[in-house]
Every structure is written in C-alpha cells, then in structure tokens.
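@channel sequence for tomorrow's demo:
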Amino acid sequence: MEIITFLIDFILHVDRYLEAFVQNYGAWVYALLFLIIFVETGVVVMPFLPGDSLLFVVGAMCGAGLMSFPAVVSVLVVAAILGDQCNYSIGRYFGPKVFHWEQSRFFNKAAFDKAHNFYETYGGFTIIAARFMPFLRTFVPFVGGVAEMNRAKFTFFNVVGAVFWVLGICTAGYFLGSFPWVKQNLDKIIWAMILIPGLVVLWGAWRSRRKISA
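structure tokens (generated this afternoon):
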C-alpha cells in the first residue's frame, strides 16, 4: 500500500521529486530519467509509470536552467527507442512460444492473422500515435512483436515516434513551464495529461466493441 501511495504522489508531484534529486545527485538525474522512460516503454507490466507528464516537467526544468535540454532530449529519445525495441523483442520471442500449438486454447489463428495484417498495414501510424497514449505506448510494441510485424518497419516508426514524442512534449514544457499559471496548476495539468488520453483510449475501445457486437 505504501508503494502505491508513493507512486501516486511521485506521478502527481514529479517536479518536486526531480528537483530534489537534481539538488542531491546532480547529473545522475539523466540516468534516473533514462531508467523511468525505458522501463515504462520497455517492460509490458509497467504501464503506470509517468510518461507524458514526466517529459513536460523535465522540459520545464530545462527551461529553468536545472538541466540541459539537448542532453535530456538525447537521453530520453534513446531510452524511448530502446524501450520499444525491448518490448517488441519480448513479444516477438514469447508470442510464437505461447501460440505455438494452433489447436491449443491459447491460440486463435484468425485473430493472429488479423493482428499481423493490421500491423503490417497500419502498424506505423499505430506505433507513432500510441506514443502519446498512456498504457497503449507500453502494449502496442509488445503486440507488434507478437503479431510478427516486420522488424525493420517497426524500428523505423519506433525511432520517428520516439523523436516526435520526446521532442514535442519536452519542448512544450520548456516554453510553457515558466508561465505562472502553469506553475500554479501543474498538478491539474498532470492529471489532464493522464486522464484525457486515457479517456480517448477507453472511448475507442468502447466504439470498437460496439462495432463488433453490431
């Protein structure tokens, strides 16, 4: 219970934790940021770690002179790329093993073929768009691996998505983070960055289920 409470507090007040970390450990903050983004994107069981809000706050801290913007962007882009590659590789490795027997209750050949065809056709857009969606950005590369999406194609869109995601949100934080209104309402902004994309994902899932039922 204490761990859950700490995680919630860390997500909502990530700016305070990072500022204290910078004051106490200096440049080690880059290693911490790398670890957080890599784990969130690279380990399929860790979708709850802060992503968008972390990038925004880090950008704002760079704007305040607490960190180097080029160094932060470089470290986080590499972490995001390697994280998705790791997640894809996990899905690619375990997918065939789990679904090895076509007659097993775990394997649905029709569903597998649909997933494979979907990722080959729309996988690029899905990988890029999922970067901006909490939870989805953790599961999409894993499913892409399970669906055996072409690795070269996945890698290309993984790199493009990582650059857009990290650079876009960090830049927004860099320029907007110094505004008094943003500072005063940072906790609300963090909630919005978590809840709004999450609601979009739920709405999309609900629409998909309705179409399937119809």
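heads up for whoever presents: The mean pLDDT is 79.
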